[in-house]
Amino acid sequence: PPGPSPGALYTPPAAEMEGGWGSEAEKRILVGRKIGRALSAARSERGGGGLGEEDRGPVYQGQGQSGGSGVRSRGAECQNQDTGGGAWGEKGRSPDTNCLPLQQVKQFLLLSRRRPALVSQCLRDSETGKPSIMPRLYINRRLAMEHRDCPARDTSCKNAVFTQVYEGLKPSDKYEKPLDYRWPLRYDQWWECKFIAESIIDQGGGFRDSLADMSEELCPSSADTPVPLPFFVRTANQGNGTGEARDMYVPNPSCREFAKYEWIGQLMGAALRGKEFLVLALPGFVWKQLSGEEVSWSKDFSAVDSVLVKLLEVMEVMDKETFEFKFGQELTYTTVLSDQRMVELVPGGAATAVCYEDRGRFIRLVQQARLEESKEQVAAMQAGLLKVVPQAVLDLLTWQELEKKVCGDPEVTVDALRKLTRFEDFEPSDTRVQYFWEALNNFTNEDRSRFLRFVTGRSRLPARIYIYPDKLGSETTDALPESSTCSSTLFLPHYVSAKVCEEKLRYAAYNCVAIDTDMSPWEE
C-alpha cells in the first residue's frame, strides 16, 4: 500500500500480522516462561541475589509496536497493555514498585549463557512454513547500473534492483498473500532471479547477488558514487571526512515512502532469521533505536555529526565575549538536518537571533531536532522488523548483535577466510595455493569483501569458499578467474607470479559483475 501523504505523521501498524505468532496467549506465556528462566539463570550465574524484596522478579515489557507482554520471572503472568493488562508508568517502570524497567532487566538477561538458545527457540516458535511456490523475478541489471551511474535522470528509481525486486514481489491479485519472511532457517533462497541478458540458472547465487545489489544501492560502499535510492543519506561525518565513522548512512528525513522502509525492515528480519545478509552501513545511533535501546546525544550522535556535537559542547561553556565575536547576530534558531534541509527550531526561527543567555535553550532544541530527525523512518523500519522477528528476540539482543546478525561481519580477515576456504583437486605443493594466499594478504578489507562477493554473492562473513583448478586444466596461464556464486566456487588458473595472481583476482572482484553474458552480451 502507498505511504501517507507528504507531511502526514507515520504511525507504524501493529507489528504482529494477522494470524499473529500462533495462539497468542499461549505463545506469550511460553516465551515469558523461557525469558523468566533465563533471567533466573542469569541472576544465579552472577552469584545469586533477588531483584526484589520478595524475589518476585521484574515485569518484562517488550518495547516497539507489538505491544509486548509483561512477564514475571515466576509464574509467567502476562499483562498486555493492548488487552487491558497493567499499564506502564511514564518512565517505563511498572506499577509494581518491586519491578525494574526493561533496560535493567535486559542487563541481567545479557549475562545468561542460555540467551543464544533462548533466541533460537523464540525464532523457531514464531516461524511459518516456506512458500508453496518460490517467486520468480526478472531483473535487468544493465538498466540498474545505468541508473546507479546517474540517478538524477529518473527520480522514480524504477530501474534500480531494489525497485524491480519490490515490485516483482507484490501480490498479483487480492487472493495472493504477501511474503511473511518468517521461514525456517533451512529455507535459504527467498526468491529466484532471472537476470535479463545474463545466462544463469539461479540455485542461490543469483538471489544472493540481488541482495548484494540492493545493499549497494541503499548504502553505496564508495563515497565517490551518487546514492541511487532516496531512503538513506550520507552522514555529515562522511561528507566532511571527520569523526571515526566516516562510511555511514542515516535514514533520509525527507523520504516519506514508509511502505518501502517497512519492507527494508522485513528484509532485515529475514536476514536475522536466516543465513543471508542485508549489508546496511548504519551507525549505532540507528541500530540502537531499532533494537529498542535508548540513544543519547553525547554517546551516539557523534557517529553522525561529530563536528556539530563538538561545536555545541564548546558553545555551552564559552564566555559571552567569545560567543558574540564568533556568532554576533548571525546565529538563528535553525539547524540543518542530514538531508541538508534547514529547519526552524521555533516559529519564525530563521529571523530570530540567538542571544548568549539563551544559548542553552538553542543547544537543547538543536539536539532534539537532530536526534528525532528520522524517527518516523526508523519507526517504519522497526515495524517491518517486528513483523518478522518477535519483540522478545530484540529484547534479548544488543544492538551490536542485531547489526551483526543482519549485516554479517564487516571484517574480512585472511585468517577467517583460511578457516572457510576449501581447496579441491590441488596438490599440497601447488603454487596456485601459495600465490592465492599471498594475493589475499595484500588485499585491503574492501578488496577481500569484493572478492567474497565475486565468489559467493555475499560481501560479509561467514561464507564458505570452494576452490578448484580452472576448468581448462593447465592449458591457460594468467587468465581471469571464473566463479559460480550458486556453489560459492572459484576456478583458479595458473599464474606466473603472486603479483599477477593478485592483479587478476582484484580485477575480477571489481569488474566481473554480469553472470556469463556470452550468450547475449551487453552492447558497450
UniProtKB/TrEMBL annotation:
<feature type="region of interest" description="Disordered">
    <location>
        <begin position="1"/>
        <end position="23"/>
    </location>
</feature>
<keyword id="KW-0808">Transferase</keyword>
<keyword id="KW-0833">Ubl conjugation pathway</keyword>
<feature type="domain" description="HECT">
    <location>
        <begin position="175"/>
        <end position="520"/>
    </location>
</feature>
<dbReference type="InterPro" id="IPR000569">
    <property type="entry name" value="HECT_dom"/>
</dbReference>
<feature type="active site" description="Glycyl thioester intermediate">
    <location>
        <position position="486"/>
    </location>
</feature>
<dbReference type="InterPro" id="IPR035983">
    <property type="entry name" value="Hect_E3_ubiquitin_ligase"/>
</dbReference>
<protein>
    <recommendedName>
        <fullName>HECT domain-containing protein</fullName>
    </recommendedName>
</protein>
<feature type="region of interest" description="Disordered">
    <location>
        <begin position="40"/>
        <end position="95"/>
    </location>
</feature>
<dbReference type="GO" id="GO:0004842">
    <property type="term" value="F:ubiquitin-protein transferase activity"/>
</dbReference>
<dbReference type="InterPro" id="IPR042469">
    <property type="entry name" value="HECTD3"/>
</dbReference>
<dbReference type="Pfam" id="PF00632">
    <property type="entry name" value="HECT"/>
</dbReference>
